[in-house]
Design brief:
This protein has 346 residues and is an alpha/beta fold. The protein has 2 domains: 120 residues, 3-Layer(aba) Sandwich (Rossmann fold); 191 residues, Dihydrodipicolinate Reductase, domain 2, CATH 3.30.360.10. It contains 12 helices and 14 strands. Helix 4 packs parallel to helix 5, helix 5 packs antiparallel against helix 11 and helix 11 runs antiparallel to helix 12. The mean pLDDT is 96.
Length: 346
């Protein structure tokens, strides 16, 4: 069996997850890793048995024989790094968000469309078995009309989160705090479940604990969709003890309640529903997402989150931030729909 060859760019915590998962796949081979810190990259390579080590991304693209590249780098580096790979006709699997700004994401999507490139954004909850079952039950009408959805991301981060990765606290580099970095996952899932385009939002951002950074550590907001579904969102970095993500979906026929442990669960109230399974499975949603992207690269099947699908998430996040600054209800920037329309996905 010929393995799909890829490189990990960014040898931090998220890159480590992919490095570990790829070792258990019979279809994927990690042939190189990249980090500007050579000692860090060498330790990473030794841990995951990766043969080649680079400190320069351009050198990797010029020398290494790859089927795709995986990016686990700061948000502001997504745009230039994806662009360079696309220009070399190399597929890209990138951590969310697409980029740190909506403007740069729109430019990138247009480039990807022009080049007919394969760029996937790792919103791995699309492959979470409980999220998938909940979304499919909603799409099939088994919960009835979806009236509202409540989402909570009660997470915790220490001082090292900002001191060891300074870009996390820099608004220009990160694009924001807990909303874009943690909650964008659940924004994607809620919109997926609602199966309706977002129209307008309200938002409130706070710095409760981390006062010396430029981004929020607590965000609360609402999203209204075309179908009049109301989505309530709360995301935090400051709870005393981190808890799992929860999501409650209330429909006219029944309710779905999601708990996102390492082994996520969903239960249905008011209806007996057979839970559908994702098209790709793995020990964790991240593993399934990686395998789903690999199958897209090899032409076996489509990937759940190509770049233009994830554009809606960033447009929603962008509007939420604008609402938190203006104090008013804000409508989404419709340029994202025009961009998606060019791909033929609408």
């Amino acid at each position: 069996m010929k393995k799909t060859r890829f490189a990990i760019v960014g040898c931090g915590d998220v890159g480590n997850d992919i490095g570990l998962i790829s070792r258990f796949s019979r279809r994927i081979q990690t042939v190189a890793c990249v980090d500007t810190n050579r000692s860090k990259a060498e330790l990473f390579a030794k841990k995951h048995k990766i043969p080649e080590v680079y400190t320069d991304y351009d050198e990797l693209l010029g020398k290494c024989d790859l089927d795709f590249v995986y990016l686990a780098v700061p948000h502001y580096l997504h745009y230039p790094m994806i662009t360079k790979a696309v220009e070399k006709n190399l597929p890209v699997f990138c951590e969310k968000p697409i980029t740190n700004t909506l403007d740069s994401a729109l430019e990138l999507c247009n480039l990807v469309n022009q080049k007919d490139a394969k760029v996937g954004i790792n919103y791995q909850y699309r492959y979470d078995k409980a999220c998938y079952a909940l979304a499919k039950a909603s799409h099939k009408g088994e919960l009835g009309e979806i009236f509202y959805i409540r989402c909570n991301v009660p997470w915790s981060r220490g001082k090292s989160y900002f001191s060891e990765s300074v870009w996390h606290g820099n608004k220009d580099q990160s694009g924001g705090g807990t909303l874009i970095t943690q909650a964008s996952h659940i924004v994607d899932v809620a919109l997926w479940i609602a199966d309706s385009r977002p129209v307008s939002v309200t938002g409130l951002k706070k710095q409760k604990v981390f006062k010396d950074v430029e981004v929020e550590d607590l965000f609360m907001g609402t999203i209204e969709t075309e179908s009049d579904c109301q989505i309530q969102l709360c995301s935090s970095m400051v709870v005393a003890e981190e808890q799992c993500i929860t999501m409650e979906v209330y429909g006219s026929k029944g309710t779905g309640i999601y708990n996102g442990h390492f082994f996520p669960k969903v239960k249905f109230l008011g209806q007996k529903i057979k839970k559908e399974k994702p098209p790709v499975r793995g020990i964790h949603a991240i593993a399934a997402s990686l395998e789903g992207f690999r199958r897209w690269v090899t032409g076996e099947m489509d990937y759940e989150m190509p770049i233009w699908n994830s554009l809606e998430v960033l447009a929603t996040v962008d509007a939420l931030y604008k609402a938190s600054e203006s104090g008013n209800t804000e409508k989404l920037d419709k340029r994202y729909l025009e961009c998606i329309e060019k791909t033929g996905s609408l």
